[in-house]
Specification:
It contains four helices and two strands; from the N terminus they run H-E-H-H-E-H. It is mostly helical and 71 residues long. Strands 1-2 form a two-stranded parallel ribbon.
Length: 71
């Protein structure tokens, strides 16, 4: 089987990814919430994406907060 290894994204790249991913759900995310998400997921894009999906559908707020991530 063929596989390809990718270098981990930098914190700036992860922040950009999180903002863009949140926007796909018509949401914004607080910078502190994005940083917390990075720390909790250890930069794992799969975990980040799944957590954003969960938070985007958890309530009708337009912005994802630190409190949302901690829940």
């Amino acid at each position: 089987p063929y596989s390809q290894e990718f270098s981990p994204l930098s914190e700036g790249q992860l922040l950009s990814f999180i903002k863009k991913e949140a926007a796909t759900y018509q949401k914004e995310i607080e910078a502190s919430a994005a940083s917390l998400l990075i720390n909790l997921s250890d930069g794992d894009l799969w975990l980040i994406t799944n957590n954003l999906n969960k938070e985007a559908h958890a309530n009708d707020n337009k912005k994802i907060s630190v409190e949302d991530i901690k829940e």
